[in-house]
Amino acid sequence: MRSARDLAGALGRLIASGELAPGTQLPTVRSLARAVRVSPTTVSAAWSQLLRAGLLDTQGRNGTFVASGRMLPGARRYRVVAEMGLGALLDLSTGVPDPDLLPDVAIVAGRVARYPLTTSYQDRPVLPDLEELLRDRWPFEPEAITVVDGALDAIDRVTTDVVRFGDRVIVEQPCFPPLLDLLELLGAEVVPVELDERGVTPNSLADALERAPVLWHVQPRAQNPTGVSTTPARLRELATVIRTHPRGANVLIVEDDHSGDIAHTPALSLGRHLPHQVVHIHSFSKSHGPDLRLAAVGGAGEVVERLSVRRMLGPGWSSRILQAVLVELLGDQSVRDCVSHARATYHQRRHAVAESLRDRGVPTTGTDGINLWVPVTDERTALVTLASQGIAVAPGSPFGVAGLAHDHVRVTVGLVREGHDEMASRLARAARLTLRTSPSGR
To answer: With 60 as the cut, is the pLDDT of residue 299 above it?
Structure first.
């Protein structure tokens, strides 16, 4: 045991397992340092990590104790992104769909009365008609399938079920801020993997598996924020890495298909190659409406069934009324045409701004989704410059696992309905600017 993180992880696992019960007083820093043969500085750093995670409670001279209740920090990265658009004339920081491109729920709302809805608290969590539709459109044969209240609800429930304090979790770099906040709350050690234009790189995944992770979070298409979609060939390479690595069989793969039906790339999944290790999450928020609050979760049977059973002690099920609405939306030809139009429109908007930026010497990544990941000389300058023009974009830093090699901003170009060339011109100018300060910082 050499590092503070190693020590924090070991103690965190003892607390999570109950071997160190709430209220247990821990040894002093110096006595523990002698016992595990590390420096007092290392012990202090480990306890700082556990204190931030809410697992320890310090009482000054009375000592340090295992906390009786977790005092969890807030979603600090997510808040930074969420607050950027306040007061902006044009808010491109949100990552949300264009409301004008969503189907009109009123088209199908009147039809749900024919559905036999809740008759018992022990009813199946998924309407049979919806489950049949989901299984038909799933990218692989799922062992089990259920419905929860949106993609973030699914990510939270699966991750919380699997990850314990000190566990290692693989994520993409850059990564969706709420996921990083969640992993921080759980006290997980985040292991980043690299992305190129074809998806996660096989070498970085192989290196990450050497760290003995328990979970790998991945976005197979329209990765947020980069817009990268994994190619089928790269997917096969990644499956081979998992299958042949000595530690690959111990990793649960959680796929977040957050763009769902508005993604330009066809649905794909590692579940085609590793069906017993994959939990696939398909969101309907961007395609059919955020207020539906529905996402489907399917794949590895034990994990999905455990999620369903655990939900029975809380919300029980997602609204069957909303499930019935979704059944009708998925089956209605006019709605399918609306979603198809939205998909093409988002692709055209993204392509138009990206090409115009490239013409101005500003490269972007990926080809899918509603966001652009734009490199800038200085993040703060770019944000302020655009804000002075009434335009809000998301800062790139909250998406970084342990800092980014270069400054970026995320722009939800799916909301840019017209003036794509002018928007690219404004973004390009902001991307090139940098703050000029004197040596004194004034």
So the answer is: yes
